[in-house]
Design goal:
Length: 159
């Protein structure tokens, strides 16, 4: 054997843990699916029966959970689709910086400073106004496939 030491630094991510396979025929409305490489929430599913030797096909209409764009896909119901692992975490809002980043308090007491304010105007206004009024705000952060975004806000009262 050689005396060399091997060090492997993994900077690339295969993306395997970001999604899991699920049969297209089992995905329902309000479930999640990956369409064109984007994590989406299914808003409509229709199944069509095809001819004598064809497969039944599922037609998915879904909305990207980060950009709110409408995407569609048609998949044979017996085939597997990628389904994203979607997590929702609540953090307390500590601060909003001038460059559009938020400072959030995690459950273990550390801060999370790598998230931008949401692009949704209504939610953005609610967060800024609530913060300006000195309210205690809790934001819900949705994460899937290596992306994170604030998608909801709760007011837990004045400071």
């Amino acid at each position: 054997m050689s005396d060399e030491e091997h060090h492997f630094e993994s900077k690339a991510d295969a993306g395997a843990s970001k999604t899991y396979p699920q049969q297209a025929g089992t995905i329902r409305k309000n479930g999640y699916i990956v369409i064109k490489g984007r994590p989406c929430k299914v808003v409509e599913v229709s199944t069509s029966k095809t001819g004598k030797h064809g497969h039944a096909k599922c037609h998915f209409v879904a909305i990207d959970i980060f950009t709110s764009k409408k995407l569609e896909d048609i998949v044979p119901s017996s085939h597997n689709c990628d389904v994203p692992h979607v997590n929702r975490t609540d953090y307390q809002l500590i601060d909003i910086s001038e460059d559009g980043f938020v400072s959030l308090l995690t459950d273990n007491g550390s801060t999370k400073d790598d998230l931008r304010l949401p692009t949704d105007d209504a939610l953005l206004t609610q967060i800024k106004e609530g913060f300006a009024e000195g309210k205690d705000l809790v934001v819900s952060v949705m994460s899937a496939m290596g992306e994170e975004q604030i998608n909801a806000l709760k007011d837990i009262g004045p400071k």
